[in-house]
Design brief:
heterodimer; A: 251 residues; alpha/beta; Rossmann fold; 2 domains; 7-stranded mixed sheet; 4-stranded antiparallel sheet; 35% helix; B: 553 residues; mainly alpha; 79% helix; 0% strand
Chain lengths: 251, 553
């Protein structure tokens, strides 16, 4: 479970995120959407323990990221947009390192399965610098999945992937959610969110404009028709002056 | 030792990285080009270290060390202080402990404590410094009593110099950036003022005997003793005469200083991750700029404004290319000016203390400075040509212009800017030494022609053997070897061109009845002809350049 309570992040005079609260339960897939500069990546990075919050509490699987970062990090995976790898290490060596860092049991077999799933078996001995953008993304996903995290954070996960890679990733996200992982996906691809996510969080200028199940987003705004697409909802919320809505009880 | 308290996975990562570096060298040596570069590197090392090692093994070592001991003991602490100050200045106010982008993405969200990451970074830094220290200690071999003392001393000194900015960076996270920036400025200002006072005290004494005597005098002042105190410890470790008590005492003290700094780093336990991300991004941007050959941009914080120059005529397609590169050069010029001023200060200050009060000495130094920056520094600083367009070669190839026009457009900006930077030096020499008017006049005429020759040659070599600078680092033997080969080829070509020009000048001087004007005109004509002859060669290299093969790295 991912839990964010009253999260604030400010840089000098700039407010990146203000008073954000939400919760992603096991099995749920939360789509995090918003215009550029809305605070999506800042939020993801704060949950990942990379940047400290100015105020508020962020926890993963019950572990506060600020108080007990190692225990929290042991339980989640963060896959950034444009993941950067160690140029001189091979694909296999990346997985070896991750297995050691997260103390993964039966790592060779798990690595082999993941490499096969993402069609990287033949690239096991290739150096990271020899890989295409999409393949680097697949390696980062394999690294993220290797320790079977209970929470997974994706930042623009489809960038660079080929159609088969996209299908494999989407299916793996659904499978992992079904197995009980709490998943967050930050993306500008509203079709991806509509296709995969069970919940939606729309951010604008660091504030939550809508949080709740995707299925209730249409009915939440009376001004919209029952067939309104996610794109229409997004623009209605971010540009149409709709009031902020929180459809799930705050933690 | 830090390596023993590192988590096993981080130790594994370090081992894999060392292995990866060796693998890279081995893989590079599989190709003919790689073998050639490696051989050049070995030859260079042999030439560099050969005389030192020969002197160490074949001369009476004690005599040699006795001779150089005063020089080493006088210069070493001051040199280390200067290096430390440069490192501190290079550490900008917002900079943090820079990690590789992959480390940010993979290690920061991984289950490691901040202290583990710090130790990992320090260990990586230490491993890199071992290589550097080894090279320096071999160079120092004939100047110290025992090589191993020299190696340990220089390694501990380098560790100290690297730890000082890290301690300061961690203070940023604790006391806040604004307070740190003010504090750092104040500290640097006080340090600069103290050094200026120290140098002033020495200058008042009218030191004679050059830079060694100057350093010795600086050490004898109270301020000098105070500032050089830690560096004196490392220096004495390197130059220790006996294991007991010299090396053990000084080496132990040096180790204690470093250990205290490491302890302080770990004890501060600041949350450096956020500042490290910013620092790492800046480092990545610097590397990216280096990949595009825009290394000069790293010397200044931001491009120098939004200055514009009017669009040039088309000139068969050369004009727009030249205009684009001129704009880049104009906006990136601040870093180059800083660098040139630093270079000038580095030459002029020691020259002044070495008896440069005499105008003739200053002119002689200036006369050697201009060719040095023209041949070696300008081509590296002013990469507003094919080297900065390595990722845009395919775009250039689609332009409706002949290769010769594209080459002309690419070469114009560096030639113009190099000429603009060098001419003031040439004119200044003319002002100091008016009787050299003819030579100065020839210099003014020759500078653009020589620059065209130098930049055409640089681009020719680049298009024949394309490379990226980003991978240059400790242990990148092939990259160093390539640099050596290019440098050697440049020496040969400059020697050939210079010889040809001198021969033509001599002939003209003799034929025209000992006329210097005729001689200089002949020299100018030869240099221009050689430069223009290179352009079709560069055009041919551009035509044959295959972006799909040659830019992959």
């Amino acid at each position: 479970m991912i839990e964010v309570v009253d999260y604030h992040k400010t840089y000098r005079d700039t407010v990146a995120v203000a008073g954000l609260s939400f919760r992603v339960e096991p099995g749920q897939i939360l789509g995090l959407v918003g215009p550029n500069g809305a605070g999506k990546t800042t939020t993801m990075r704060a949950i990942s323990g990379i940047i400290p919050p100015t105020r508020g509490r962020l926890s993963v699987a019950g572990y506060d990221v600020a108080v007990d970062p190692v225990a929290a990090k042991q339980r989640f995976a963060y896959i950034p947009d444009d993941p950067r790898l160690f140029d001189a290490l091979t694909v296999g060596e990346h997985l070896t390192f991750i297995a050691s860092a997260y103390q993964v049991e039966d790592a060779p077999a798990k690595s082999a399965r993941l490499l096969e799933q993402f069609e990287l078996t033949e690239k096991q001995d290739a150096l990271a610098q020899e890989l295409s953008r999409g393949m680097r993304q697949k390696v980062a996903i394999c690294c993220g999945y290797l320790h079977d995290p209970v929470a997974i954070l994706f930042d623009e996960p489809l960038t660079g992937l080929d159609p088969r890679g996209i299908r494999t990733l989407k299916q793996s996200i659904k499978d992992r959610a079904q197995a009980g992982a709490a998943i967050m996906i930050s993306s500008h691809l509203l079709s991806l969110v509509e296709d995969l996510c069970t919940h939606l969080l729309i951010l604008e200028k660091g504030r939550s404009r809508y949080f709740g199940p995707v299925s209730e987003a249409r009915s939440a705004f009376a001004e919209l028709s029952a067939e309104a697409s996610l794109e229409e909802i997004f623009f209605h919320v971010t540009e149409g002056g709709a009031p902020a809505l929180h459809r799930q009880s705050e933690p | 030792m830090t390596i023993n308290i590192l988590p096993p996975s981080l130790r594994l990562l370090l081992r894999m990285q060392v292995r990866a570096r060796l693998r890279k060298v081995a893989r590079g040596a599989r190709t003919l080009k790689g073998k050639l570069y490696l051989a050049a590197m070995i030859v260079m090392f042999t030439v560099w270290l050969g005389p030192t090692l020969a002197a160490t093994f074949f001369m009476r070592r004690s005599d040699f060390v006795d001779q150089s001991a005063p020089l080493v003991q006088a210069l070493l602490p001051s040199s280390l202080l200067v290096y430390c100050i440069i490192t501190l200045i290079a550490t900008s106010s917002e900079s943090g402990i820079a990690f590789h982008p992959a480390e940010v993405d993979l290690l920061f969200p991984a289950p490691f404590r901040r202290r583990d990451l710090l130790l990992y970074r320090l260990t990586g830094l230490g491993l890199g410094l071992l290589f550097t220290s080894l090279a320096f200690s071999l160079f120092l071999m004939s100047h110290v009593r025992f090589w191993v003392f020299g190696f340990i001393g220089i390694a501990l000194a380098f560790v100290f110099i690297q730890l000082v900015p890290i301690v300061l960076t961690l203070c940023v996270s604790i006391m806040g950036e604004r307070a740190y920036t003010r504090g750092r400025r104040l500290a640097l200002f006080v340090l600069a003022a103290l050094i200026a006072v120290g140098i002033g005290q020495v200058a008042v004494r009218r030191v004679e005997g050059g830079i060694v005597e100057l350093a010795a005098q600086f050490r004898s002042t109270g301020l000098g003793r105070c500032l050089l105190a830690p560096f004196e410890v490392f220096s004495r470790t390197m130059t220790a005469e006996f294991f007991l008590p010299d090396f053990l005492a000084w080496g132990g003290l040096a180790l204690a200083i470093d250990a205290a700094l490491v302890g302080l780093v770990l004890r501060l336990d600041a949350n450096f991750l956020e500042s490290s991300i910013a620092a790492s991004q800046r480092l990545y941007q610097k590397i990216e700029r280096m990949r595009r050959g825009q290394m000069w941009m790293n010397f200044a914080k931001a491009p120098a404004g939004r200055w514009r120059i009017p669009l040039l005529p088309r000139w068969s397609g050369a004009g727009p290319i030249a205009w684009r590169q001129l704009m880049s050069a104009l906006r990136g010029s601040r870093g180059i000016v800083y660098f040139l001023l630093a270079m000038l200060a580095a030459v002029a200050v020691p020259a002044y203390f070495a008896g440069g009060q005499e105008p003739l000495v200053l002119v002689a130094i200036g006369s050697s400075f201009v060719p040095m920056i023209s041949l070696f520094f300008m081509p590296q600083l002013l990469q507003f040509d094919f080297r900065s367009d390595i990722d845009r070669i395919d775009v250039l190839k689609t332009l409706p212009a002949t290769p010769a026009a594209i080459v002309a457009g690419e070469l114009l900006a560096p030639v113009v800017f190099a000429t603009l930077y060098e001419l003031p030096f040439v004119i200044a020499i003319g002002v100091v030494q008016p009787e050299w008017r003819l030579i100065i006049g020839a210099g003014v005429a020759l500078v653009p022609a020589i620059n065209l020759f130098v930049f055409a040659f640089e681009n020719l070599v680049f298009l024949w053997f394309p490379h990226r600078l980003a991978n240059l680092g400790a242990g990148d033997f092939q990259a160093f070897g390539r640099q050596m080969l290019v440098m050697g080829a440049k020496f040969v070509l400059v020697g050939f061109g210079g010889g040809l020009a001198v021969a033509a000048g001599s002939l003209a001087w003799w034929l025209a009845g000992e006329s210097w004007i005729a001689a200089l005109a002949a020299v100018w004509c030869v240099v221009v002809a050689l430069s223009l002859a290179l352009i079709p060669l560069v055009a041919s290299a551009f035509r044959n350049f295959d972006p799909s093969l040659d830019t992959a790295d």
